[in-house]
Every structure is written in C-alpha cells, then in structure tokens.
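Milestone 3.1: sequence recovery, worked example.
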C-alpha cells in the first residue's frame, strides 16, 4: 500500500508499505469478477497509533500499528466468512456471517462480495459498516488490541459517521433504512426516512434504487454522499429529522450538470469533514466527451468535488425520536416525556406538527409520533404500555451538568 513519509528538509515523500502476509482473492480461488479482486474499501484511523483497512473482498483483517521513526507494523488476522445458518467460525479467529443464499458450492456469489463498506472510530473502537455482512464489525483497542468482535445488525450500508456515542450508517439502496448503532448498549436500530424519488432517472433503470456511498458528520448533522441520488441526505443525529439538499443544476458552476451524468453511473464515492465543512469525493472525472455509449461519456460528474458551506450549529435539541416500536428505556440517556405540556414542547423543539392528546388503552405510552401522519400525540391512558410498531417514542435527552 502507499504511504507518505518525511524526508530531507521535512518534505513528504511517497513510498510503498509491504502488506506481507495479507492476500486478496484470485481467479484460482474462484474469485471471478472485478469485485472479488477489490481487497479493501477505505481505512479508519484510531487515534495516532492504528489504521484499520476495511475488508471488502479480503478474507483477512489488516491493521497497521504506528511506530515512531519506523515502518508501521502490519497485523494480519484470518477472517472467516460463514453462512448464517451454518456456524463455520473458528474459535479465537475473527468471523462474520452472510445470508446463506449468498453461497454456492461453499464460495460466495460475486454479487454478494463486500463484507464491509467503510467505518468510523468511536471511543476505544472502530466500527465497520455492514455491506454484505449481517453484523457490524468492531475492532477494539482498549487493551492494546486489535480485538475483533461483531454486533448483530442488517446488511446494505456503505459508509459511517458518528455523533457522540451513536454511529449512523449510510444506506446503499432506497429500500434500506438508515442504520443506527448505540455504542453504549451495542443495540442496532433503524430510521426509515421518506426518501424523495429520483427525479432524473428512468423508471426502468436497474440502478435507480442505489442511494448513498459514504457519510460524514458536522456536529449533530450527518451527511450522506449521493451515489446515484440527485441529493445529499441530511439526518439530525438527535432529533432524527431527515432532509435533503438538491445537488443538480443547469450548469457545472454550482452543482452537477445532470444531463452530462449517466443515470447508471456513480456520482460520489465517499465523504469527509474538514473543520465545519463536508466534502464529497467524486467517483468519476469529466473527460468532456459527448458520446452516449456505456463505456464512453457522458457518464461523468461535471461538477468536480462536492462541498457544502455549513452554518454554525444551533443549540442541541432537548428531545429525540426513537426508532419505531421502541421505548425511551431502550436507549441509554433517554427519559420518558410524561406530561402533555412537555410533549407539545417536544413537538415544537423537533419541528414536528402537534396532533392532540388521546387515551389509548394498552397502546404505546406517553409522548409519541406517528411517522405516517408526521404528527406528535400524547397518550393519557394510565395503563398504556403496549409497544406499537407504527409509533416512535419522543424522549427527553439526559445531559450531565458540567463540573
């Protein structure tokens, strides 16, 4: 792999680091097709000591350990890929699970390769976004590490960003909800926004359901980089409010010239934050051609690197919306909103329309929102306590007073 090292006069020079012991798939191993040759998809730094290479088709977990004035140490661990209905894991060896239908003759189908798609560091660990994997990958460095483990989740994610102790995973397709991992409880939940339709794509295009690739955070705002979408997805980490920012324009000066971008080609591949500004990494360049064939233009992004100017964040909200069917007690730091007045105040704070109080015996208790109607309601029934999968709870966020 490539790396930069300091040279004479403090200048940086490019050099290669041998990943001895790390291997990728080959045709001889049944790895037929481009995607099975792609070893890693991104990297995540933990502090100033470790770099985790995110395994895509590699059956190895590779971690680089920084050593002052010396070549980094390359730590390689064999990674077992097991069907979810058959435990092929080896004790003491990192292991992940894929759906059983992903396998044929003990090999993984080409279309199901891609264990993880990016990741993010939170606390003592690096969390890997589950692409084909049924689990979030966790690499812990608390005791010097790396120690690999997994957390049950769902597949379909490309990229991750974090705010406080929550990790948000970017959905790869329009039918996939946003993934949320509470790193304090290791509980994975989802948020299903009402994604806008892709206005520019023909309905019969096989790529028209592909959504985001990469995520980054600016304070409590999580930005999802558009892969085939014509917008940037924006999620508020505390309120779970979801909005979009249109990226299409009629000229390349302020956005993407959509007519010069094939609707079945990728736009951005990742996102990163510098200061208080997110940047989106272009997947293709613009060669200026006007051909319309599959292998020649115009399939390129004419707008170059994407970026947004973000205003200073307002004070954080005092309330949050849970996933549907969840109670406040299911998450650390959330408290029930137990009065009608506080519930109405929460609706205003979250910018969700206030509905009305009602008495629902044996229904979802206290303050809640019905996403289908986009309203907040308060259940006054004293014996309410039945979780309703159609409702999400509204909770007060517990905050520790500064010492």
């Amino acid at each position: 792999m490539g790396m930069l090292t300091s040279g004479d006069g403090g200048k940086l020079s490019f050099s290669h680091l041998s990943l001895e012991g790390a291997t990728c798939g080959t045709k001889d191993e049944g790895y037929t097709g481009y995607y099975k040759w792609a070893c890693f998809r991104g990297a995540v730094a933990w502090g100033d000591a470790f770099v985790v290479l995110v395994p895509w088709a590699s059956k190895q977990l590779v971690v680089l350990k920084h050593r002052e004035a010396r070549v980094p140490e390359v730590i390689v661990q064999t990674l077992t890929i097991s069907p979810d209905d058959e435990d092929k894991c080896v004790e003491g060896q990192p292991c992940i699970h894929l759906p059983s239908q992903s396998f044929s003759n003990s090999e993984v189908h080409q279309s199901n390769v891609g264990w993880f798609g990016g990741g993010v560091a939170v606390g003592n660990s690096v969390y890997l976004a589950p692409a084909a994997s049924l689990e979030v990958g966790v690499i812990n460095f608390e005791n010097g590490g790396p120690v690999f483990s997994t957390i049950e989740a769902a597949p379909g994610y490309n990229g991750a960003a974090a705010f406080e102790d929550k990790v948000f995973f970017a959905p790869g397709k329009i039918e996939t909800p946003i993934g949320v991992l509470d790193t304090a409880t290791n509980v994975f939940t989802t948020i299903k926004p009402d994604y806008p339709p892709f206005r520019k794509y023909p309905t019969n295009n096989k790529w028209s359901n592909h959504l985001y690739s990469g995520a980054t955070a600016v304070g409590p705002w999580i930005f999802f980089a558009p892969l085939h979408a014509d917008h940037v997805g924006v999620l508020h980490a505390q309120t779970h409010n979801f909005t979009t920012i249109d990226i299409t324009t009629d000229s390349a000066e302020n956005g993407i010239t959509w007519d010069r971008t094939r609707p079945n080609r990728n736009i951005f591949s990742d996102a990163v934050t510098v200061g208080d500004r997110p940047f989106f990494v272009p997947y293709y360049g613009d060669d200026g051609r006007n051909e319309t064939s599959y292998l020649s233009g115009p399939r390129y992004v004419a707008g170059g690197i994407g970026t947004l100017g973000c205003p200073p964040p307002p004070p954080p909200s005092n309330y949050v919306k849970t996933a549907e069917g969840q109670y406040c007690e299911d998450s650390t730091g959330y408290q029930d909103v137990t009065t009608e007045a506080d519930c109405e105040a929460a609706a205003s704070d979250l910018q969700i329309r206030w509905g009305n109080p009602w008495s629902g015996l044996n229904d979802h208790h206290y303050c809640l929102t019905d996403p289908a109607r986009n309203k907040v309601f308060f259940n006054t029934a004293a014996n309410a306590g039945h979780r309703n999968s159609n409702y999400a709870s509204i909770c007060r966020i517990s905050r520790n007073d500064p010492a």
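The mean pLDDT is 80. DSSP finds one helix and 33 strands in the chain.
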